[in-house]
Amino acid sequence: DVKVTQSSRYLVKRTGEKVFLECVQDMDHENMFWYRQDPGLGLRLIYFSYDVKMKEKGDIPEGYSVSREKKERFSLILESASTNQTSMYLCASSLGGAKGYTFGSGTRLTVV
Amino acid sequence: KNQVEQSPQSLIILEGKNCTLQCNYTVSPFSNLRWYKQDTGRGPVSLTIMTFSENTKSNGRYTATLDADTKQSSLHITASQLSDSASYICVVIPLSGGYNKLIFGAGTRLAVHP
Q: Does residue B1 register a pLDDT over 80?
């Protein structure tokens, strides 16, 4: 089974801090995604990547950036964390198209 | 605008009872429709995947149905267990736009009580 691992289950950061969320997948998937999930809303796509060093903006990229230096690792960066970025962050990967689409366990980030 | 609407928003049932969750969508045409289960504090896990030409798919006590004419899908849970307590998310993948265009419903939160 594909495993998508997010490095932290819970994070508490201060306003203005630079925050790194890490995601690693172990099945050689080309595509990786970052979503945020808020109560009452569906998952919203922040950024995705279809190859190493490639990235594309999703629906809500403002305040975020990403890095994909290796195929298995996709990092989400909050350059200057703000309280409205308090949320559940989910990473996902897929083989091609939506084939094998698998989510990580999520990181619950609180910005105080 | 392509949308996926789920109902009810939340549901409480007693252990052993059956329940049905609804998903209405306006996405058209679409490639496939998926149901995910998400335990509290965890990532979503796939339950069923149906192409536009399928109208039912089962996974154990979970049965998903699809009516492409009315643009409705339902997830039926039989003989509920306490471990079924979770959020259930309907996801529609449009035929065009690629894998980055998954459209998620807001989910139904199910609580199964003893």
A: no
Distance CA B100, CA B91 (A): 12
Distance CA B6, CA B88 (A): 9
At which residue do the structure tokens 């504090």 appear? Answer: B41
Is a pLDDT exceeding 70 seen at residue A50?
Answer: yes
Rounded distance between C-alpha atoms, residue B85 and residue B74, angstroms: 17
Average pLDDT over residues B97-102: 68
Q: Following DSSP, what letter does each residue of B5-73 receive, concatenated?
A: EEE-SEEEEETT--EEEEEEE---SEEEEEEEEE-TTS--EEEEEEETT--EEEETTEEEEEETTTTEE
φ, ψ dihedrals at A81, nearest 5°: -60, 140
When computed from its CA atoms, the radius of gyration of chain B, rounded to whole angstroms, is: 14
Please give, rounded to a whole number of angstroms, the shortest distance from the CA of A87 to a CA of chain B: 11
Q: Is residue B29 reached through a cis peptide bond, with omega within 30 degrees of 0 on the bond before it?
A: yes
* Residue among B89, B105, B45, B85 at smallest CA distance from A106: B45
Is B90:B23 a contact under the CB 8 Å cutoff? yes
Which residue of A37, A44, A88 to mutate against B (max B Cβ within 10 Å)?
A: A37
Q: Which residue has the tokens 């003989």?
A: B79
> CA of A65, closest CA in chain B: separation in Å?
17
What phi and psi values does residue A85 have, to the nearest 5 degrees? -100, 5
